[in-house]
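Next comes this protein.

***
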Amino acid sequence: MRSTVTDPRLRPASLPAESAPEVDFETDVVKIPVKLCNLPPFNAIASQVLALTTDPDIDLRQFSKVIEGDPAFAADILFLANSSLFGFPSQMHGVRHAITLLGLERIKALAVTVAMRGFLSKRNALVHQCWYHSVACALVCEEISAIFDFSGDRAYTAGIMHDIGRLGLLKSYPTEMMPVLSGQYLDTQEVLRAERAALNVDHARAGSWLIGNWALPKDFSEICEHHHDAPHANDSELLQLVKAACRIADAIGFPVVKCQQQPSYLEAISPLTPRLGRKAAPLAEDLYANVTARLAAFDR
């Protein structure tokens, strides 16, 4: 049975502290497991970076000062900026230099990546598997972003955040999530049902809740909640992009969970066909090679 911890804010007034029930947080639509509610907030520097990049009149000096305010965070950004993950040809030795060369959207992508790595902290094989899927999805988003008329950096940031709910559940409820993620299923919908059976919430809804709780941009919330939904005419362009990239990441060899009805690569790229015109879709082996090479940056 899933364990919970007492949230004193939700304790009935009539009960003394020592007899307080252990309860989850219940919203209008779903019950959120209380350990998920008690996860530490998203990295403060990354949150400020996300907020500042929405300001068209942003002061670049202020932007660099925010990042430089945490020397360890700034060092991690420079490490990734100089790594094979992003593949920039020139070495960058300071945050302001990096901002000048890379631009705000790429720095935002780097900041979110650093924050996500820090959020994971201790890693085991399943955390590693989930993280690789998130990064693979982000890299595929970047690769196919031009098809959707998005910048590669903006697409990458959306992709790397899409599974924050699964990572959050695994971090807060490892005992309950490990059997779910180690199982074999017919399809993704069966995985989501298994998560709900174990924790009363699936990772899609959990991710949407975390984004709102951390006051991150709302487009991330839509992506987290609906990236496993069937394509819909009302989907935003960014959501369509992430849906396609998530399936492509699974198809080229980076699934989180094994499913019998795993989409083939041709099935995964089929939503791109109307947008391609005379252009050719990227080859599966090329995508796999690129993602594998760039993922190596995280193992160094």
In short: Residues 1-22 have pLDDT under 50 and may be disordered. The chain is about 60% helix and 5% strand.
